[in-house]
Amino acid sequence: MISSLRLLNFKAFENQLVEFKSLTLLSGYNNTGKSSVLQALSLLHQSYQQGLLQSTGLLLNGNLVNIGRAWDALYENAKEDYIGFELSFTNETKGI
């Protein structure tokens, strides 16, 4: 299970850590980044599915999400021209 996602220079986020639990709800005002969190997860998923993460990078436009150009994904006030993601996982084994 994904336990956290760090967004670096992605859309509305310069450096944001999002932690996930068994049930996580994203709520907030309009234009606060809820959809950007979901887009980041979808972007990583579609890039991984195509085998691009380790060799080429991100598939910005695919079946799950269409970001547009790299410039469209970059945080507006970014000090450097890079987008980064950090995923943390937890192995939870629960008996039934």
What is the structure about, briefly put?
The protein is of the alpha+beta class. It has helices spanning 34-49, 70-73, and strands at residues 2-10, 13-19, 84-89.
Detailed description of the structure:
With 96 residues, the chain is α+β, with helices and mostly antiparallel strands. It has one domain. Helix content is 21%, strand content 23%. It contains two helices and three strands. The chain has a three-stranded antiparallel β-sheet with strand order 2-1-3, with helices on one face. The radius of gyration is 14 Å and the shape is globular. The two termini are 17 Å apart.
Write the layout of secondary structure elements.
Blueprint: E1 2-10, E2 13-19, H1 34-49, H2 70-73, E3 84-89
Residue stretches low in confidence (pLDDT < 50, at least 5 long) are none
What is the β-strand count?
Answer: 3
What is the overall shape? globular
Distance between the termini: 17 Å
Mean pLDDT: 93
* Approximate strand percentage: 15-25%
**Spatial order of strands in the largest sheet:** 2-1-3
Instruction: Outline the biggest β-sheet.
Output: 3 strands, antiparallel
- How many domains, in number, for the residues? 1
Series of secondary-structure elements, N-terminal to C-terminal: EEHHE
Protein structure class: alpha+beta
Based on CA atoms alone, the radius of gyration comes out at 14 Å
Number of discrete helical segments: 2
Helix share bin: 10-25%
